[in-house]
From TrEMBL:
Zn(2+) 1 binds at D77, E139. This is N-acyl-aliphatic-L-amino acid amidohydrolase. One of its GO terms (molecular function) is aminoacylase activity. Its cofactor is Zn(2+). Its main location: cytoplasm. InterPro entries: Aminoacylase-1_M20A, ArgE/DapE_CS, Bact_exopeptidase_dim_dom, N-acyl_aa_amidohydrolase, Peptidase_M20, Peptidase_M20_dimer. Residues 153-262 form the Peptidase M20 dimerisation domain. Keywords: Cytoplasm, Hydrolase, Metal-binding, Zinc. It holds the Pfam family M20_dimer. One of its GO terms (cellular component) is cytoplasm. One of its GO terms (biological process) is amino acid metabolic process.
Length: 372
């Protein structure tokens, strides 16, 4: 493992120090580090498991190679943004910058598990409302091209389990009312819809994955013996529904697929987001104008998109506040939750400069009449 040199940029050194904190739950190791109250629970973003032997370098070593690529869990998602925010604000403070708006930095837990004990609760607290937020910035994604993705909305995550009940029996017989037959019907309907959405995306170059509904089968269960037909079988799907779809009609469509499978078929939603709020990217909208102007001045090519997965921004928008998802990482393969996740040092440092300009612009927007 390489070590930090005295000539390394201090922002890079801080980033690598942060990356070396083992933030894997349920047993994180924060060492003897202490954090301010306002940053409490800031380490709770990494709530997933990974196979360490798939990494070229240890995932918490923050190894930097000769090309300046820094390898570690969190380089893209999203310890980079945390340090970039802090360093951009530090620079603004050092420069003696003053703005008509107050800049708040919040770090909340449990985004990886849905944000239900984090931002979803926080937006309803008086402490959040007392911040009187004008607009919020949240995470985005890396972009393998020259463009920078900026997300003004996101899909609605729906996690559904369908339970199919039928008659049990010996494995040598044709059981007429078999749970598996009903399960087959359900799976077929969901995957046929999946294939149609996939073809729609592939046939229209103007569409991104945020413009279609994704469907993935994630869990199957049923049966305990090789030669016994089970009386119940279940299947779980992860759907990310495009926000422009009529959600009530789509819900009815799913229920129709389940009913068509036969009797004794039930379903339950583990998550069913019905929030379709998006943030305006019209050039006349003051917040979008304040965001895009410094980007244009820096020569950044912005690509407005619907976020394909889920972030805490959905709770911000649902509460009635605008939010944009943006991580300043271009010419970078998307490797969040992947092994050998990395971010180039130059891309990281440039991101601090980009945030400096964007935050300055957003904080300089005059108060609206409704805010006075």
């Amino acid at each position: 493992v390489d070590t930090m040199s005295s000539s390394e940029n201090p922002s890079t050194s801080l980033f690598r120090e942060y990356l070396r904190i083992r933030t894997v739950h349920p047993d994180p190791d924060y060492g003897n580090r202490t954090w301010s109250l306002y940053m409490r629970n800031s380490m709770l973003q990494e709530c997933f498991f990974f196979l360490q032997d798939l990494w070229t370098h240890p995932p918490f070593a923050a190894h930097k190679d000769e090309a300046g690529n820094i390898y570690a869990r969190g380089t893209q998602d999203m310890k980079c943004v945390t340090i970039q925010y802090l360093e951009a604000l530090r620079q603004l403070k050092s420069d003696g910058s003053h703005f008509p708006r107050t800049i708040h930095l919040t770090l909340v837990p449990d985004e990886e598990t849905g944000g239900h004990t984090g931002m979803e609760l926080f937006v309803d607290y008086p402490e959040f409302k007392d911040l009187n937020p004008g607009i919020t910035l949240d995470e985005g994604l890396a972009s393998p091209t020259e463009e920078f993705s900026v997300f003004y909305g996101e899909k609605c995550p729906w996690w559904i389990t369908v339970h199919c009940r039928g008659d049990p029996g010996h494995g040598s017989l044709f059981i007429e009312n078999a749970a598996a037959t009903k399960l087959h019907s359900v799976i077929t309907k969901f995957l046929e819809f999946r294939e149609k959405e996939k073809k729609r995306l592939e046939s229209d170059p103007s569409l991104s994955i945020g413009d279609v509904t994704t469907v993935n089968l994630t869990k199957l269960s049923g049966g305990i013996l090789y030669n016994v037909v089970p009386s119940i079988m279940s299947v779980t799907f992860d759907l990310r529904v495009q926000p422009t779809l009529n959600l009530k009609e789509f819900e009815s469509r799913i229920e129709g697929w389940c009913r068509e499978a036969g009797s004794d078929v039930t379903w339950e939603y583990h998550q069913k987001c019905m929030n379709q709020n998006i943030t305006s990217i019209d050039e006349s909208y003051p917040w979008w104008k304040a965001f895009s102007k410094p980007c244009n001045e820096l020569g950044l090519k912005l690509k407005p998109e619907i976020f394909p997965a889920g972030t805490d921004s959905r709770y911000i928008r649902q509460a009635g506040y605008p939010a944009l998802g943006f991580s300043p990482m271009n010419h970078t393969p998307i490797l969040l939750h992947d092994h050998n996740e990395y971010l180039n040092e130059d891309v990281f440092l440039r991101g601090i400069h980009i945030y400096n300009k964007i935050i300055s612009s957003l904080a300089s927007v005059p108060a609206f009449d409704e805010e006075l």
